[in-house]
Each structure stands twice: as structure tokens, then as C-alpha cells.
Specification:
Layout lengths: L33 H10 L25 E7 L2 E6 L2 E5 L33 E3 L10 H10 L3 E5 L3 H6 L4 E5 L4 E4 L2 E6 L19 E6 L2 E5 L7 H10 L5 E5 L6 H4 L6 H11 L3 E5 L13 H9 L2 H4 L2 E2 L6 E5 L5
Helix pairs in contact: 4-6, 6-7
Protein name: Beta-lactamase
GO cellular component, one term: cytoplasm
InterPro entries: Metallo-B-lactamas, RibonucZ/Hydroxyglut_hydro
Length: 330
């Protein structure tokens, strides 16, 4: 994912591509410069509270297909979205650790809410960006071999996905829509960045997605910092969202994380702007990536929500299906 030619990059500069690297409009450089990253890692508080393992939940049988809309949080940004008979998997990571080196790095605090072997047939895989906690090579290879789904990703990831076994790949620019069977998938901007190797900073695009199928619209935010204009633009284009999957974790310290990850209070602001029928929290409580405790995201979200909002912004349980449309129960 460095400077090797890739056929799915824009041929000319755009408002978020300078001809070589992508960028978030209005921001000239990545919010996570290497020297800042190392300074943070070296100076992190030595007395960080250890993450306690998350409570285990009993395994829930997984429906092969769902006629309405069901979302099951597997962990971190990995979720199973079952919509109008189609199975969509977001940012699939089933490894115990996330880093460039297998077995090394942040360790999973809870096993996947759905074990890999218990997944139903997967039709579509959405990849929001190339960071290791969202894109895991071993899981991609396994899904490509076992399920042969269509992989949908941001521009620049086509060749990487093919090298890891994907036979069907669609890469999208921001606001570009693609069609996979009955689904219409639109890539949306996100206030984030991308890096996987030493020399590939922002060489592939990061994005969220809106899935449209069977009269339902579901927004998967991926990773994003807060920007009022960003969520207003998504709400304008998609005023009838049924569900929004919004990240609430990996947000401390704010001086370092605010430009790339929302905190729970900002997730509530995004929720207000998007005005979905319901929201589901993601990107928390699975891998210790930043300084907050495992319990802090859900606690801080509860503090930021009004009583009325709290009935619509759901903090999911690992592996517990959430039915959001009962018009056509299976």
C-alpha cells in the first residue's frame, strides 16, 4: 500500500486527494504524526488502570437470514448487519491482538460476540480504512475463502484486498455509490486518516458507509472525529436513516485523539445531527487502544444522553442481536 501503482486512485487531484495522498478537507496533515505518536506512547501514565475482562455472555444462535433489520455487535467496529435477507459484516477483526505483528499488540478484552465459525453466510464486507484494528489480513483471507463475499472499501485498497484472496472488490470515493445485489452502498466522508506501513500514510481512503436495502438505510461511521459539517452533510443526503452505528471509544487523551476519534458526548452530537430512528454504539470495550478505562465509554455516553435519547442510542452487548424493524419478522 505504498507507492506501487494502483488502478483505483483518482487520476487527478480532488478536494480530498492531492495527487498522491488523501486528506480531510481543511486539514493539511494527518492528526497522528509519527513523532506525536511516539511522544504519547512514551509519556503515557504509568499507573493506567488495568482493563478488567468484560463479562462473558451466553452464546446466542445466529439467524442465517433476517427479513427486516437486525444488528449484532461482534466487538470493536465489527458488526453483523442483517438487512432484508442480506448479511453485511463491517471491519471484520477476529484476532486476539491488533498490530502489524501477529500475537503482539493490544489484546482483546472479550472474545468475538459471534465466533468466526458461527457466522452466517456473509454477502458483503465493508472496510472503513486500513488501520490494523479495522483491517486484519488473516480474517480477510478466511472470509474470502469461506464466504466469497463482495468486499467494499475506500479507494486504494483494491490491490491489497485482491492479494489477500478477495475475488470481488468494489472501491469507492466519498459520496460514490456502488451496487451489490439488492444493496446500494454509498461511501461517506470521515474525519480520520490511514496508515498501515512505514511509507503509506494516507495513501488509501478512509470512509463510512450508508447501506440502503428494502426501504432501510443504515449508517456505519467506521472511525471518525467529530465535525458538525460532516454529519450535517450526511443527514442532508440521507434524511431517513433507520440506524446509525457510531463509535464512542478510543478518545483519551483528547489533545491527541480529538482530531480522529469522537468521545461519547460528541457521538451524541452526531446522533442529534443525523437523527436516525436508533443508534448503536461501536468501537469501545474490546481492545485497549487509548487511555480511558473499559467502562468509561458507556458511562460517559449515559451521562451525555437525555432520558429520551437514551431509549434510542443503544449500548450493545457482545453477540446479542438487536432487532430494529419488526415489520417482517423471521
Amino acid at each position: 500500500m505504498g507507492d506501487a501503482p494502483r488502478p483505483d486512485l483518482p487520476s487527478t487531484p480532488t478536494d480530498h486527494f492531492d495527487g498522491r495522498r488523501f486528506f480531510y478537507p481543511g486539514r493539511a496533515e494527518t492528526p497522528c504524526r509519527q513523532r506525536d505518536l511516539w511522544r504519547w506512547l512514551i509519556t503515557r501514565r504509568a499507573n493506567l488502570v488495568a482493563w478488567t475482562p468484560a463479562p462473558r455472555q451466553p452464546r446466542v444462535p445466529v439467524a442465517e437470514r433476517v427479513a427486516g433489520l437486525r444488528v449484532t455487535w461482534i466487538g470493536h467496529a465489527t458488526a453483523l448487519i442483517q438487512i432484508a435477507g442480506v448479511n453485511v459484516l463491517t471491519d471484520p477483526v477476529f484476532a486476539d491482538t491488533v498490530s502489524p505483528l501477529p500475537g503482539i499488540g493490544p489484546k482483546r478484552a472479550h472474545p468475538p460476540g459471534i465466533a468466526y465459525g458461527d457466522l452466517p453466510p456473509i454477502d458483503v464486507v465493508l472496510i472503513s480504512h486500513a488501520h490494523y484494528d479495522h483491517l486484519e489480513a488473516a480474517t480477510i483471507r478466511a472470509l474470502a475463502s469461506d464466504h466469497a463475499p463482495c468486499f467494499v472499501a475506500g479507494l486504494g485498497l483494491h490491490v491489497w484486498l485482491e492479494k489477500h484472496g478477495a475475488a470481488r472488490v468494489t472501491t469507492l470515493d466519498w459520496w460514490q455509490a456502488g451496487h451489490v445485489g439488492a444493496l446500494t452502498i454509498t461511501a461517506t466522508p470521515a474525519k480520520h486518516w490511514s496508515r498501515r506501513g512505514v511509507f503509506d500514510r494516507n495513501r488509501v481512503l478512509w470512509c463510512g458507509y450508508v447501506i440502503a436495502c428494502g426501504g432501510q438505510h443504515v449508517y456505519f461511521a467506521g472511525d471518525t472525529g467529530y465535525d458538525a459539517a460532516l454529519f450535517a452533510a450526511i443527514a442532508t443526503r440521507f434524511p431517513d436513516l433507520g440506524c446509525a452505528l457510531l463509535p464512542i471509544g478510543a478518545y483519551e487523551p483528547r489533545v491527541f485523539m480529538a482530531a480522529q476519534h469522537m468521545n461519547p458526548a460528541e457521538a451524541v452530537q452526531a446522533f442529534e445531527a443525523l437523527a436516525p430512528a436508533s443508534a448503536i454504539a461501536i468501537h469501545f470495550g474490546t481492545f485497549r487502544l487509548t487511555d480511558e478505562s473499559r467502562e468509561a465509554p458507556a458511562r460517559d455516553l449515559a451521562a451525555a444522553l437525555s432520558t429520551t435519547q437514551a431509549t434510542r442510542f443503544i449500548v450493545p452487548v457482545f453477540g446479542a442481536p438487536i432487532d430494529l424493524d419488526r415489520r417482517a419478522p423471521d
